[in-house]
Design a protein that fits this description.
This protein is of the alpha+beta class. The chain folds into 4 domains: 240 residues, Phosphatase 2c, domain 1 (4-Layer Sandwich); 102 residues, Phosphorylase Kinase, domain 1 (2-Layer Sandwich); 188 residues, Transferase(Phosphotransferase), domain 1, CATH 1.10.510; 29 residues. 34% of the residues lie in helices and 21% in strands. The chain is built from 17 helices and 22 strands. The strands form 6 sheets. It has a 5-stranded antiparallel β-sheet with strand order 1-12-11-6-7. Strands 2-3-4-5-10 form a 5-stranded antiparallel β-sheet. It is globular.
Length: 575
């Protein structure tokens, strides 16, 4: 109940050819993978001139159906599928270059490819070549894909396919599903000879048996003179998940709210020790797991958030993220989630130590090496999030923990942007803006959080640790247009930290550019730039007032003194 249900039918035949160079397949995963990744089906057609065509089509389909389900749950369907298809294309191209196809692509490992992924209430379509995907619309078929064929005189050839080039351009689009939707995937051996009316007639005649319907279409195309391989796949949507419960997060958010927690209280196997933190979003408590005797942190929604479904989803998102990205510099969820819960709350590991905000109070003028160490660890944690398709969006000193050994952990994933979840839910329901003084300028123009946004926040923190102030003060939140943001003036660190090398200041300046595309490529590149001078960067490239303020003002005073002497001499002569 409440889950995606589909019916699939398919049939393939070599037809009048000795070998079948088409290949097809589908995957209906178990419940957990169905919610996270959806249903997938794929169809490929190898080019008839190549002896390896059947191997190419088989490799394209099997790799897609296997590798797609191995991608992180946090990745969007588009990111996962395009990454998998791109990898398959690279492998096929390598086989082409290693064989007869190196000089003649007509003999390479080349095939066309079409695939669909149905996740929640959305169909995602990926296409390269001239296999086709149709949707049944009443008494008509609507072609959803575009044939990548090129006409040259009287001949037609493929303009795009897998295995032809080292990189492939993949057509992608998505559409909203409705119960009863029917889709038809077919190779040219079928659709070139089968009118739409015959397709609809077969679907109507064999409404309860899609395998029979697919076979009827293939047989009809053969009778109408098809001399190519013939393959048909059919998919019908039988049931869709309810819009209110398309995610595991929302299911968890439907649990009863917990009672008011207090020290020494026993709550679902945890002994409450003390309150750790309270905010407008949640209350966190240090607790002891009675079974393992491990110290944990239990977080429950704040009183003012208990009637807000979106706030409850964001709370559960923290643990969801923590379970899917295991990294030394990211907060971990406690246990494996196997304990059944009767209330809505999260359980995370307890990190002894202090927040970076408190660390900065205790270390008002830290060494450059200490700052580099903290930034490098935080960058590694952020990079792990980014590689899993997530953006933190609320990086600030209060959300970074530093223990007694100097180890760093990023905490609080409640505002994280997760691509795989945002496909199924309103993005604003799962993300909150961070603290204004640490947020990237693009947020204030209505932009979405990206890796470059987290990079900007990390750079603000690094700058603040070194300089004891913010790089733009509180001016960033006041800028509501790109033109205003371009007028922001970066305050060089040299006015307050003469011991910071000019090239470190330049690395910060670049990471803190208002325009995202002018920053470093990622957080790892920024961390590296703080430790290694950029090639060709010289201290003299900075204005003297920033490079050496003392010398600048002494020189200016000397110039003014000389001017005064000259003016005085002129006045004496005139007198």
């Amino acid at each position: 109940m409440g889950s995606l249900q589909v019916r699939v039918g398919q049939h393939s035949d070599a037809g009048r050819k000795s070998a079948n160079q088409d290949f097809h397949g589908h995957r209906l995963p178990p419940a957990a993978a169905l919610a996270a990744k959806g249903v997938a089906l794929a169809l490929a057609d190898g080019i008839s001139s190549s002896e390896a065509a059947h191997l190419a089509s088989r490799a394209a389909v099997t790799s897609f159906l296997e590798d797609y389900y191995c991608t992180p749950d946090a990745w969007s369907v588009k990111q996962s599928a395009e990454r998998v298809v791109g990898a398959a294309n690279s492998w096929l191209y390598a086989q082409t270059q290693a064989g007869a196809g190196r000089y003649d692509k007509d003999h390479g490992w080349v095939c066309t490819f079409s695939a669909m992924v149905l996740k929640s209430r959305t169909a995602h379509i990926f296409h390269v070549g001239d296999t086709r995907i149709y949707q049944v619309q009443g008494r008509a078929l609507e072609q959803l894909t575009t044939d990548h064929r090129v006409q040259s005189g009287d001949e037609t050839y493929l303009g795009r396919a897998l295995g032809i080039a080292p990189r492939v351009e993949i057509d992608y689009h998505q559409l909203t599903l409705e119960e009863g939707d029917t889709f038809v995937l077919a190779t040219d051996g079928v659709y070139d000879h089968l009118p739409h009316a015959a397709v609809l007639a077969a679907l109507e005649q064999h409404a309860g048996d899609l395998d029979a319907a697919a076979k009827a279409m293939v047989d009809e195309a053969l009778q109408r003179g098809s001399d190519d391989n013939l393959t048909v796949q059919l998919l019908r949507v039988e049931a869709l998940p309810q819009a209110e419960a398309v995610e595991a997060l929302r299911g968890a958010a439907g649990l009863p709210l917990p009672p008011e927690l207090a020290p020494r209280m026993l709550f679902e196997g945890y002994r409450i020790v003390r309150e750790l933190h309270a905010s407008a979003r949640s209350h966190a408590f240090v607790a002891l797991d009675e079974e393992s005797q491990q110290t944990v942190v239990i977080k429950v929604p704040a009183t003012e958030q208990r009637e807000d479904p979106r706030a409850l989803e964001r709370l559960m998102l923290e643990e969801w993220v923590a379970r899917r990205v295991d990294h030394a510099h990211l907060l971990k969820a406690f246990g494996g989630g196997e304990r059944r819960r009767g209330h809505l709350y999260t359980v995370m590991e307890y990190v002894p130590g202090q927040t970076l905000a408190q660390w900065m109070v205790d270390h008002p003028r830290p060494s450059l090496e200490a700052v580099r160490g903290i930034v490098a660890q935080a960058a590694r944690g952020l990079r792990a999030l980014h590689r899993a398709g997530m953006v933190h969006q609320d990086l600030r000193p209060e959300n970074i923990m530093v223990d007694a050994t100097g180890s760093v952990k990023i905490i609080d994933f409640g505002a994280a942007s997760v691509a795989g979840i945002e496909e199924m839910a309103d993005a604003q329901a799962l993300a909150l803006p961070g603290l204004a003084q640490y947020m990237a300028p693009e947020f204030f123009l209505g932009g979405q959080g990206t890796q470059q946004s987290d990079l900007f926040s990390l750079a603000v923190i690094a700058y603040q640790m070194l300089g004891g102030r913010l790089p733009y003060g509180m001016e960033v939140p006041k800028c509501h247009s790109l033109a205003e943001q371009k007028r922001l003036h970066y305050q060089s660190l040299h006015a307050v930290r003469r011991d910071v090398p000019a090239w470190v200041d330049e690395a910060l300046r670049k990471a803190l550019q208002p325009e995202p595309d002018k920053r470093h490529g990622d957080v790892a590149e920024f961390s590296y730039a703080l430790q290694h001078p950029a090639p060709g960067l010289r201290r003299s490239s900075l204005p003297l007032v920033e490079r050496d303020p003392l010398t600048f003002w002494r020189s200016l005073a000397l110039v003014l003194a000389v001017c005064c002497v000259v003016l005085l001499g002129l006045l004496v002569r005139r007198g």
